[in-house]
Amino acid sequence: MTITDLYLVRHGLADGDGDLSPLGREQADRAGRRLSTVTFDAIHHSALPRAAATAEVIAGHVRAPRHACDHMMDRTPYPSDRASYPERWHAWLDGVPAGERDPDAVRLRAAVAHLGVVGDTDRRELLITHNFVIGWFVRHVMDAPEWRWMSLYQENCAVTVLRWSSDRPPAMISFNQESEESRPFTAS
């Protein structure tokens, strides 16, 4: 049996310019210290300043190759057919700026297909991204209705761990665990 563990971390709290606030830097540092006991094969992060800065702080504690990854960009799944979405969310969807829309979640589906796979060897990767991206990955793993990504909230610098196994369906190992300096993070 081989496994792939994806550790998803939402970026730290941002300031008005989109960079990390002092609290966001502190959140990222705590997350990095907590994740320092985990050996990662790679760190993938969004290129947006708040996620890139979070990745930089965490990488001070976690030794793994890191890179900006288009799959981690901030996206909002945007359905072309809203029949499967509760009506109460339709007005909210209308307010999503065109540049943030991911029509029918094509790019988010590609992210899951690219990263949520099992190979010949075990793999553990850290993904530093945005709330809706994490919600989409969790919704996928839980095989929940597509609109359920909207109801999942991830705290800044909290950790969610998802596992793909060669002999069973994907599973959620942990969800939205905030950093606790006294407790290192392990998903085993």
From TrEMBL:
<dbReference type="InterPro" id="IPR029033">
    <property type="entry name" value="His_PPase_superfam"/>
</dbReference>
<protein>
    <submittedName>
        <fullName>Phosphoglycerate mutase</fullName>
        <ecNumber>5.4.2.12</ecNumber>
    </submittedName>
</protein>
<dbReference type="Pfam" id="PF00300">
    <property type="entry name" value="His_Phos_1"/>
</dbReference>
<dbReference type="InterPro" id="IPR013078">
    <property type="entry name" value="His_Pase_superF_clade-1"/>
</dbReference>
<keyword id="KW-0413">Isomerase</keyword>
<dbReference type="GO" id="GO:0016787">
    <property type="term" value="F:hydrolase activity"/>
</dbReference>
<keyword id="KW-0378">Hydrolase</keyword>
<dbReference type="GO" id="GO:0004619">
    <property type="term" value="F:phosphoglycerate mutase activity"/>
</dbReference>
<dbReference type="InterPro" id="IPR051021">
    <property type="entry name" value="Mito_Ser/Thr_phosphatase"/>
</dbReference>
